User: Fold this.
Amino acid sequence: MDTDTDPDAAAPAASSGDEPQRPTRRRWGVGWIAATLVLGLVVGATLGLLIPHLRTPADDSVEAGFLRDMSTHHAQAVEMSMIAHANSTNPQIVTLAGDIALTQHQQIGYMQAWLRDWGLSPTSSQPPMAWMPDSAGSVVNNLMPGMATPEQMAELRKATGKDLDIQYLTRMRDHHLGGVHMAQAIIDSSDDEDVVWLAKTMVSGQQSELALINQMLAQLQQA
Amino acid sequence: MSISSPGPERNPSTVKVDKTSGQGKPPAGGAKPAAKAGGGKPGGGKPGAKGKGRKPVTPVKVSGGRSWGPIAVVAAVVLVAVGIIGFGAYAAVQGGKSWEDKAADIKGIVNYRAQKNPQIDSQEHKGGPLTYVTNPPVGGAHNSVWQNCMGDVYTEPIANEHAVHSLEHGAVWVTYKQGLPADQVKALSDKVEGKDYLMLSPVANLDKNVALQAWGYQLKVDSADDSRIDEFIKALRINATKEPGAACSGGNTATGPVTAAPNGTSMNK
Assistant:
């Protein structure tokens, strides 16, 4: 703190010209403290407003990308499972399809609700899988890994009997493999507790379903 | 915000312009955008600026050099503060925009929800062919079966009665004038295919090349390359739903008009 700085000396109009150093210094001190307090208040208030936004993932975050893409990915699993649930005559298939449809539809609800909580749009104009490292080339016609083509979906809708069951299991196996791959990518790149928790349940749940699907496929193809 | 005790105001401001030709500039530059964004929030920057001009040029003192340290610190603090305030204001303005606001920003969009037209607002299920007040429709009574909207690309016209039910579920329905050049149709189907809560179909008697529908909203444009198409989809897809959680799968996948059955559920699957 200097005694002889003019900005401060100019401040109080009533200050007499030749003052001893101490009062000047005190004026300095008061000025600085007040300035610091005001600045501190402003910065603090701004941070307070910002922190809720800073603590949740942003619009271009990997979490938002994952939740949006996985919602779309899940929606197709629901679609295929509802078709199998309606058209299959195999109780094992009906049970599995109902289980997958209900689980994945509910998980879409979790994912959409988090986006909403974070104040983010449920969709984006980003291409699918843009959030995922090394995903180049994995998207064909906007379809993420494991997703069925429109032609495959049309075939599934028409199928009946054992043909339907085998088609459904085959499509679902590919679908789960793609989904597990995506879920593992977010587990590796996110530290959001909720998102990582849900992704881990997807990995474990779908991996155990994959084992069941493989077993059912082997049975059907032998029969 | 502006606690205008002379001390604090004068000091930072003096620092900013008068004394520091070097460090003073960044804060001054930084202050301007913030002042725009924050709408006068940064109380420290502006009022002080007036004071500066009035001040007579002080005699150059040797001792002035000694105050560089605190001046630099204050300049840095002010710069950071202004940056935080500016960013905060920007984030608040951008992040606070609802999807309705984003939709309203799209040039040429028509918000039919604002009209409070009962014929458009009705969510009733009715069988058989129905008439709609807009072409293509953006809402109103509809068939109990929705049109599958899992990124389906329909190459023939679909029934309004099913399509409106898809809008109710949160889909954006992209339509084009039947006979639109193949490259334009391809550009549209590239935006739609494989994306749930979207579907594409031609319309026989459309007055513009491309029309986009969400529940209660419509945008008509001349070209499939119009950037507003993506804006419309981003703002309204899923957001415009009247039934959160309702699916786009499990709907009708056939094209063509509804059958005039009294109970109105036309063929499904």
